[in-house]
């Protein structure tokens, strides 16, 4: 093993190279656990990105076991994912069914969402980097092109990506971000459907066509803006597709039954649902609930993540804050005192939620808060705390002054 690390030799045994490339991925076995891992060599400038990646634990991403720096190189040991690449599946099986494409894309979006939440962009989403495991899972692999989103650069410092799958901005037209990965996934979906790039031949599948067209727009602002937004659309389309298939099967079975048996199976509930006002109420209520759910998952801090404990803490905080605000207002004897208490509660309870939970992704626009350097980010958060203290103190004093002026 060239430029071997002595510590690595003690803990890992080389099995075989996985490609013919020099310093390419090597299959190794860990002595202590007999676990098979893949060793890869990365440039040192990716160290901070890969350290961030190592902290992400997700079902659709390979687990990173260890990072070792030796002789100016960065060695990464990650989970050995056994299965076939999507590229191999397409070559051997032909095009995929619509339901398979939607399910696969949703899994990749969940992996991308986990990366994007940590400020990372994959930048090389393609069939060769998507693995269908022997257990039926889907994994997004290969982080050679990963980078963090700066938000202030005119273009990427290092221009990487696979021709045909990479978004236009990855070739120097602008800085790549989360929407670049969504562009690549749109191309992958089209390849799965018709084995062609969208710009050459867009799929005619009615379920996929609109999704792929939007995902692969040349202008990033015209695409889906987040992995969650695209995931919600795919999930809705998959539900409709499955419902249509189920209904088609039901209609086929119904045609084979005598009419008298079909009528005999009508229940009181079926008859009740025939009322147009009841159906309209159910339709409106379901869409309203879906809209509220989408709003919470997209905008409300604490609910934008799929992590349950974060949602529980957020819910606890909102209940306590709401109770405190309502309680402090209700028990005031006059209207002016109620307004004063409301303003104070907004500064003390609501303002920190907006500032410290990256509401509407505002932190990306501030260099210190969006910096890749941890020291700069800590300085940014320190200044943010100072800003909150100063603005709260000033706001409370101004609120008290206004209250005294109106009550003298």
From TrEMBL:
The regions listed as transmembrane in this protein's record are 312-331, 343-363, 375-391
Q: Which Gene3D superfamilies match?
A: Transferase(Phosphotransferase) domain 1
Keyword Transmembrane helix in annotation = yes
Tell me the leader sequence span: none
Q: Which InterPro entries match?
A: Kinase-like_dom_sf, Prot_kinase_dom, Ser/Thr_kinase_AS
Q: Which portions of this protein are annotated as coiled-coil regions? A: none
Enzymatic reactions: L-threonyl-[protein] + ATP = O-phospho-L-threonyl-[protein] + ADP + H(+); L-seryl-[protein] + ATP = O-phospho-L-seryl-[protein] + ADP + H(+)
Annotated ranges, domain Protein kinase: 1-273
Q: Which domain of life is it from?
A: Bacteria
Task: Name the UniProt key words of this record, in alphabetical order.
Answer: ATP-binding, Kinase, Membrane, Nucleotide-binding, Serine/threonine-protein kinase, Transferase, Transmembrane, Transmembrane helix
UniProt name for this protein: non-specific serine/threonine protein kinase
According to the UniProt entry, its GO molecular function terms are:
ATP binding; protein serine/threonine kinase activity
Q: Could you tell me the EC number(s) of this protein?
A: 2.7.11.1
């Amino acid at each position: 093993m060239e430029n071997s690390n002595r510590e690595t030799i003690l803990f890992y045994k080389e099995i075989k190279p996985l490609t013919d490339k020099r310093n390419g991925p090597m299959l190794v076995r860990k002595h202590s656990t007999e676990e098979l891992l893949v060793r890869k060599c990365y440039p040192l400038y990716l160290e901070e990105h890969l350290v961030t990646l190592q902290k992400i634990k997700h079902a659709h991403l390979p687990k990173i076991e260890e990072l070792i720096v030796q002789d100016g190189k960065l060695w990464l040991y990650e989970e050995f994912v056994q299965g076939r690449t999507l590229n191999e599946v397409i070559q051997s099986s032909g095009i995929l069914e619509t339901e398979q494409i939607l399910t696969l894309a949703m899994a990749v979006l969940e992996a991308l969402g986990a990366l994007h939440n940590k400020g990372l962009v994959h930048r090389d989403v393609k069939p060769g980097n998507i693995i269908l495991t022997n257990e039926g899972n889907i994994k997004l692999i290969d982080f050679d092109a990963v980078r963090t989103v700066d938000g202030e650069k005119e273009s990427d410092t290092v221009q990487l990506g696979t021709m045909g799958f990479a978004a236009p901005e990855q070739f120097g037209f602008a800085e790549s971000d989360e929407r670049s990965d969504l562009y690549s996934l749109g191309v992958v979906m089209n390849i799965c459907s018709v084995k062609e790039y969208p710009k050459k031949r867009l799929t005619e599948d009615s379920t996929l066509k609109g999704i792929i067209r939007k995902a692969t727009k040349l202008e990033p602002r015209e695409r889906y803006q987040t992995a969650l937004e695209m995931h919600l659309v795919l999930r809705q389309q998959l539900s409709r597709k499955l419902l249509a298939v189920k209904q088609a099967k039901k209609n086929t079975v119904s045609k084979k039954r005598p009419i008298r048996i079909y009528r005999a199976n009508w229940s009181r509930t079926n008859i009740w649902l025939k009322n147009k006002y009841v159906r309209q109420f159910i339709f409106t209520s379901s869409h309203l609930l879906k809209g509220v759910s989408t709003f919470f998952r997209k905008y409300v801090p604490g609910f934008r993540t799929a992590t349950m404990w974060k949602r529980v803490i957020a819910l606890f905080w909102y209940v306590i804050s709401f109770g405190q605000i309502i309680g402090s207002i209700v028990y005031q004897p006059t209207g002016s005192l109620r307004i004063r208490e409301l303003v104070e509660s907004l500064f003390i309870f609501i303002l920190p939620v907006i500032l410290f939970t990256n509401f509407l992704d505002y932190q990306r626009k501030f260099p210190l808060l969006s910096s890749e350097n941890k020291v700069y980010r800590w300085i940014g958060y320190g200044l943010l705390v100072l800003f909150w203290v100063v603005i709260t103190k000033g706001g409370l004093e101004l609120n008290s002054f206004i209250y005294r002026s109106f009550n003298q």
